[in-house]
Amino acid sequence: MKCPHCGHDGSRVIDTRDSGDGIRRRRVCKQCNQRFTTYEQLNTAVHIVKSDGRREPFDRIKLLNGIRVASAKRPIATAHLEGIVDQIEEYVHSSGRTEIPSKEIGNIVLNRLKAIDPVAYIRFATVYMDLPDLESVRSEIDRLMDRS
Ligand SMILES: [Zn+2]
Fold first, then answer.
1. Residues 6+ apart with CB under 8 A from 110
2. Is the pTM of this model over 0.70?
3. Domain chopping of the chain, boundaries
4. Distance 39 CA to ligand 1 centre (A)
């Protein structure tokens, strides 16, 4: 566990706390004496791999927020959005993999949203499929309109 202040490898735990789905440890660096907090999840964390190669831990709340933003002011029940996130969380943890491409997660969300609300679908697609310009947003809308 490297100190985030000086990069030193040795630290001493000064406080350990159960925080629901993980363990929080307060640490003090043996070299610079600065304090920092580490968080350990009880399950092996699944990481999401983004299109640029960056990895970040799967974060249910972040995903839900993304879907919420896409669905703002649309007639979709919150329970419905939570249901989508539940399904994805289960998918992620039952896959047995430790890394899943963000695109794969995005596609599952898109498939659900498409069936529920086309506007929320397009909003989510704009962000998560990285539609770079209006032209590609329009062709995605065209594709959607053709199908329905
Ligand atoms: Zn340090």
1. 121, 124, 125, 128, 129
2. no
3. 11-41, 47-147
4. 17
